[in-house]
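Per reviewer request, we include the raw input and output of the structure prediction for the construct analysed in the revised manuscript.
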Amino acid sequence: MRIDLNSDLGESFGRWELGDDQALLSIVTSANVACGFHAGDPSVLRRTTSEAAARGVAVGAHVSYRDLAGFGRRFVDVPPAELTDEVLYQIGALSAFTRLAGDRVRYVKPHGALYNTIVHHEEQAAAVVAAVRAFDPGLPVLGLPGSRFLRLAEEAGLPTHREAFADRAYTPEGVLVSRREPGAVLHDPEEIAQRCLRIAHGEPVEAVDGTRIRVEADSLCVHGDSPGAVDIARAVAARLRAEGVTVAPFTGRNA
């Protein structure tokens, strides 16, 4: 049994620091690195990709709406053609730094509001798919199981991978509970680790209303900006390995 453990990294900006990237890079197997549109400046991107490459951590482009002030967590009604260009721009920027580090962008994962929007929004999902295909028609994408984004990506011939969230609550429909709702973010490392083990085993987990849902996943995400993110990631990785689950990049970065 094998599963990836990813985290959102490279989200500091200028003198504003967010998260403990160095500690998380010693634990996770894939890094969703901000590309400058919701967070991250050029120096942060270069430093994060360099450290990831040195540790053998797979780097993914964490693409977003152009929304620094809102941290990419607000919907933007951007025209599809413009969204394609903006996503392509972000992948290209991160690619420059991964190449300097002797590596390459291994996958693309949308961030925040864009991630949630393209679960259902056909035009924006197609726009993101078009950007990835334009950059590299063989580049994998990471997204929510059952989303329009993954369906359109698969139809376009892109390798698709399913993601579950270690530290976020789910609705009975299998989508993320809005951060504006109580209980949307989970905090207890041991409880989260047990939940992740159930996901890795293909067993059902509790939705926010107590119903049982099954979340299929190739990768588990711990948000780098969550309080206690390092402790959560460490607990998840330890529990998985203790139960015989191999923790490794879904892209085969270390294969």
